[in-house]
């Protein structure tokens, strides 16, 4: 009997603790600062409320992409430095494994915040594998919190939602737990009239998902030392947004860091991986296809933007020409990928940034695929121009 | 060690201390379960191994 009493007392104490944490989390949801906006972490991408708060900020610009968002951080040419105190606030969503389908769900998960705004999608040509995004990459990038908000979005047509649902179900079919939850979410948010019991379960489940994503966000931010508020007075190595100076600095650094290998990449990356691959004849031949499933996912992203009146900029990242020549993936095949992406962007009225003529630009790559130095300056400058362009 | 053992014996003899010990024990278990639920990822997906292209 005493043990039961002790358990009940512990339960009350636990309840009070959970309520206190709930109140703390809800009153301390972080607001924009550049470090947080350009922070690449799944806890940030998975919290729909966290993202919404960022996008409510005046001058915020959603930038969706993949691994290139993390490469070059703290180099002085990355958005995490360039846009300090700027009149544009980049909000990064993406890391390795994120592709068009996740970008589509994310863009469709913040209707009030994104409608009428501009959004940038950085498309890597390496996304164009035959089957598009892999099941493991998708499973790791998936956010139930964003997916539920996507399903609830009134601006997106049922046809577009059905495409996403079909893809999501297919990609998660071997991940039982996740698959079941997705089916349940679809039933709850897209199904016919729900019973009182179903409504209760739906609200409870959604509340827990939201609570969890917010708590994880705050915990991860604290662990990573990311501030929850505006930072001021940081010392910068270069004045922000002086593009001429940035170009000159990238050129100078390029000679030092990327001037001693045949592929126009960082010498350190060359020595660490690419030199031995080339010398030992172990280069894998890429197999990217313009008719990849990725093209359909990208189409879906563009449709979602159109339905929500979002003005997207599709940035087609270039192949590292010197390296891809070595792999045997020739310029005709590369051009087919660029052409496909451009055609889709044009079809859906999106702005398109063609960087295909940068394939051989010196000091523009960190490795075989990621932009670095001048490549980063170029992309950031073009995004900044797009942000300030008057609407079409 | 002797001191510790005598401390434990003293605590065991005090009903109130045993009760509070139990409360803290159950509380920590509940908190641990809750933290586990909050911190684990939603995804049941196998780890994605990033390969550079």
Structural features, described:
The complex is a heterodimer of chains A (392) and B (53). With 392 residues, chain A is α/β, with parallel strands linked by helices. Chain A has one domain: Rossmann fold, CATH 3.40.50.1110. Helix content of chain A is 55%, strand content 7%. Chain A has helices at 2-27, 34-37, 42-46, 48-55, 79-82, 100-107, 111-114, 135-141, 144-152, 158-171, 176-190, 196-224, 243-258, 267-279, 293-307, 321-327, 331-347, 374-388; strands at residues 60-64, 89-93, 118-123, 311-316, 351-354. In chain A, α13 packs antiparallel against α18 and α15 runs parallel beside α17 (331-347). The longest helix of chain A has 29 residues, at 196-224. The N and C termini of chain B lie far apart (59 Å). The radius of gyration of chain B is 21 Å and the shape is elongated. Chain B is 70% helix and 0% strand. The model of chain B has no long low-confidence stretch (mean pLDDT 80). Chain B has one domain (2-39). By secondary structure, chain B is mainly alpha-helical. The longest helix of chain B has 25 residues, at 15-39. The chains are: A alpha/beta (392), B mainly alpha (53).
How is the secondary structure organized here?
The complex is a heterodimer of chains A (392) and B (53).
Chain A: H1 2-27, H2 34-37, H3 42-46, H4 48-55, E1 60-64, H5 79-82, E2 89-93, H6 100-107, H7 111-114, E3 118-123, H8 135-141, H9 144-152, H10 158-171, H11 176-190, H12 196-224, H13 243-258, H14 267-279, H15 293-307, E4 311-316, H16 321-327, H17 331-347, E5 351-354, H18 374-388
Parallel strand pairs in A: 1-2, 1-3, 3-4, 4-5
Helix pairs in contact in A: 1-12, 6-15, 9-11, 13-18, 15-17
Chain B: H1 2-13, H2 15-39
Structure summary:
The complex is a heterodimer of chains A (392) and B (53). Chain A has helices at residues 2-27, 34-37, 42-46, 48-55, 79-82, 100-107, 111-114, 135-141, 144-152, 158-171, 176-190, 196-224, 243-258, 267-279, 293-307, 321-327, 331-347, 374-388, and strands spanning 60-64, 89-93, 118-123, 311-316, 351-354.
């Amino acid at each position: 009997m005493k043990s039961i009493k002790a358990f009940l007392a512990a339960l009350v104490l636990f309840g009070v603790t959970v309520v206190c944490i709930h109140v703390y989390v809800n009153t301390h949801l972080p607001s924009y600062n550049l470090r947080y906006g350009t922070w690449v972490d799944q806890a940030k991408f998975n919290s729909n409320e966290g993202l919404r708060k960022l996008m409510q900020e005046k001058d915020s610009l959603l930038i969706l992409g993949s691994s290139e968002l993390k490469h070059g951080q703290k180099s002085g040419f990355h958005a995490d430095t360039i846009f300090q105190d700027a009149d544009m606030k980049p909000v990064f969503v993406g890391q390795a494994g994120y592709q068009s389908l996740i970008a589509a769900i994310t863009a469709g998960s913040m209707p009030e915040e994104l409608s009428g705004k501009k959004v940038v999608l950085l498309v890597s040509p390496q996304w164009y594998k035959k089957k598009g995004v892999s099941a493991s990459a998708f499973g790791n990038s998936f956010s139930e919190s964003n997916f539920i908000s996507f399903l609830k979005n009134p601006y997106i047509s049922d046809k577009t939602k059905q495409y996403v649902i079909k893809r999501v179900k297919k990609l998660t079919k071997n991940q039982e737990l996740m698959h079941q939850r997705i089916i349940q979410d679809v039933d709850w948010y897209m199904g016919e009239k729900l019973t009182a019991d179903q409504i209760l379960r739906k609200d409870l489940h959604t509340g827990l998902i939201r609570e969890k994503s917010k708590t994880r966000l705050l915990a991860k931010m604290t662990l990573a030392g990311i501030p929850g508020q505006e930072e001021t007075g940081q010392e910068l190595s270069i004045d922000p947004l002086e593009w001429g100076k940035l170009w000159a600095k990238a050129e100078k650094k390029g000679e030092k860091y990327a001037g001693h290998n045949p592929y126009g990449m960082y010498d350190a990356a060359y020595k660490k991986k690419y030199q031995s691959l080339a010398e030992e004849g172990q280069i894998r031949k890429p197999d990217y296809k313009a008719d990849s499933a990725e093209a359909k996912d990208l189409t879906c992203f563009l449709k979602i933007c159109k339905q929500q009146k979002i003005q997207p900029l599709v940035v087609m990242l270039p192949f590292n020409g010197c390296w891809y020549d070595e792999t045997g993936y020739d310029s005709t095949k590369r051009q087919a990928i660029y052409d496909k992406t451009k055609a889709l962007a044009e079809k859906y009225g999106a702005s398109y940034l063609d960087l295909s003529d940068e394939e051989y630009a010196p000091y523009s790559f960190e490795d075989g695929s990621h932009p670095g130095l001048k490549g980063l300056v170029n992309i950031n400058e073009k995004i900044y121009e797009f942000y300030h362009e008057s609407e079409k | 060690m002797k001191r510790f053992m005598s401390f434990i014996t003293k605590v065991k003899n005090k009903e109130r201390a045993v009760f509070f010990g139990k409360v803290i024990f159950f509380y920590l278990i509940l908190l641990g379960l809750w933290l586990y639920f909050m911190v684990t990822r939603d995804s049941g997906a196998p780890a994605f191994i990033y390969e550079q292209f």
